[in-house]
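Technical appendix A lists one of the benchmark inputs used to test multi-chain prediction within the project. The record comprises four sequence entries:
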Amino acid sequence: MDVNGAIEKRVREAGLRPTRQRIALASLLFAKGDRHLSAEELHEEAVAAGVPVSLATVYNSLHQFTEAGLLRILAVEGSKTYFDTNTSDHHHFFIEGENKVFDIDPGAVKVLNLPEPPEGLEIANVDIVVRLRPKRVR
Amino acid sequence: MDVNGAIEKRVREAGLRPTRQRIALASLLFAKGDRHLSAEELHEEAVAAGVPVSLATVYNSLHQFTEAGLLRILAVEGSKTYFDTNTSDHHHFFIEGENKVFDIDPGAVKVLNLPEPPEGLEIANVDIVVRLRPKRVR
DNA sequence: TTTTTTGCAAACGTTTTGCACACAT
DNA sequence: ATGTGTGCAAAACGTTTGCAAAAAA
């Protein structure tokens, strides 16, 4: 298949062996645009799709993909770790209570006057999380 | 004592009984300016200071102080929750690897063009985390 | 005395690890 | 054949909870 061929190439180019599990996970992750997933969610999707990976393998793969630059870890509070399939510079809305994350229109936000980092350190990246809550009715 | 009297007043005004443990923890937290601490770290400090609180009590107190508006929860990735004694609007540097947090000069940063939140939601707050890493030598 | 708080140990949910077996090369 | 990757179950980690004993009101 064409799509799976592309996914396989992508996995291989990340320096990882294109195993059945990794290809299945990568397909779920990268097939349909930007996604924000926890390991648990991806595991459920995989199982539902008829690919019975173990949760441990999902964690392994997510971290391997992250190291390879295919994913980004999302910095939101809460117990779960979220992985973002969009690795380019962009920021997030976070809905309190629901633990839902989605992208802020990338063109929109601008940060001004970022201070210089202390001696010997450089900026790895800038994460903006805009926390949202239900609007109060008044 | 004067300092402890002030701390006690602060705890009491938060609607909490000024117990030995809460006063000790509040002293450690609020005595010396802005701090960013995990529960574990505060627990160690307390024990080192000769106040053998239990870790459970540290967690309880931190959450009670947070509800009372004396602390803010810090949203940096990673497994640990950090509490910030500075509850005013400001942002953070985060040193990767070291899990260290410190404030960005509050006057400095400005965010432009924040998009409107979706219907029915309002912005609770905006958190900026500037992740730092050791500068590469070249 | 009544109510709140504490401390312990056990429970919890998420993530990581050790190791035998299976798979990709 | 060799080296990786996988799956399971167990361990680890930070955090929360239930409950009896202790302290504050």
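Residues 17-20, 38-40, 55-56, 59-60, 79-81 of chain B lie near DNA strand D (CB under 10 Å from a C1'). DSSP finds four helices and seven strands in chain B. Comparable benchmark entries are summarised in Table A2.
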